[in-house]
Amino acid sequence: MVNVLSIQSHVAYGHVGNSSAVFPLQRLGHEVWPVHTVQFSNHTGYGAWTGRVFDGQAVEEVVDGIDARGVLGSCDAVLSGYLGSADIGHAVVGTVARVRAANPAAVYCCDPVIGDVGRGVFVRPGIAEFMRDTAVPAADVVTPNHYELDLLTGRTTTTLDQVRDAVAALQATGPRVVLTTSLDVEDTPDDAVDLLASEGGRHWRVRTPKLDVSVNGAGDAIAALFLAHWSSTGSAGEALGRAAASVFGLLRTTAEAGSREILLVAAQEEFVSPTRTFAVDEV
User: Fold this and answer.
1) Least packed by Cβ within 10 Å: which of 59, 146, 162, 203?
2) Of 205, 112, 194, residue with least CA distance to 153
3) Is the pLDDT of residue 12 over 90?
4) CA dist 93 → 6, 109, 263 (Å)
5) What is the DSSP string of 117-143?
6) What global pTM score does this model have?
7) SS3 (DSSP) at 257
8) Angle subtended at Cα 200 by Cα 233 and Cα 276, rounded to the nearest 5 degrees
9) CA-based nearest residue to 160, from 181, 177, 185
10) Are strands 177-183 and 192-199 parallel, antiparallel or unpaired?
């Protein structure tokens, strides 16, 4: 079991941010300390929502309270995702420094949410630069999608060799482990999705069937699952295989039900015992 401090957005209805990351971690037997950066009624993809955005001070105040319990030294990992402002980002990175001071073995997993193919950059001005210059260099593990990998490294990658070079460039800034999701290179079949995990100069790829589903929150879930399995196994390749299988099962359950929200609870057995596994190939 690991103790994870997860600093992310939260919605009452649906599953994005902490609402997507916390339960899979708990279902795997890990303890999670969620700190919310926003509290909304639902994710913003609906076009209308209620609730409020918290600032960096609000995050720091919650962490102060956790620290007052004398437990930061037992925190094994910090996980972060979408950042609504650079102010929140600085609070996250400051929290990582506090946790590492209490437990030098603690790791930071940063999901550098910036944008995606077809949507472009969808975060506020300054966030992409903050991710590139501050958050990613502070992280041990980063989980960009293919679009974000290119953006963070200033490259355009269309082949596996180019992706490996981009990953190496990103690792040179700080993170040891890179999980690249939604990978689409020239040898990726049209009916498939690739994921690539990279650590120590080695790279592992998993290829899963492409599903007819468009939902929010799957990226938050796979970042949490990958962190959990990497922390437990110490292997990026093994963590990739387990996380990919679980998220495929989650998305397949969601697609079969025609749900707009990922069916996190209905598919919970997929986190523990995925119904379908996929080959992990070193590339």
Assistant:
1) 162
2) 112
3) yes
4) 12, 11, 31
5) TTTEE-SPTTHHHHIIIIIHHH-SEE-
6) 0.97
7) helix
8) 45
9) 185
10) antiparallel
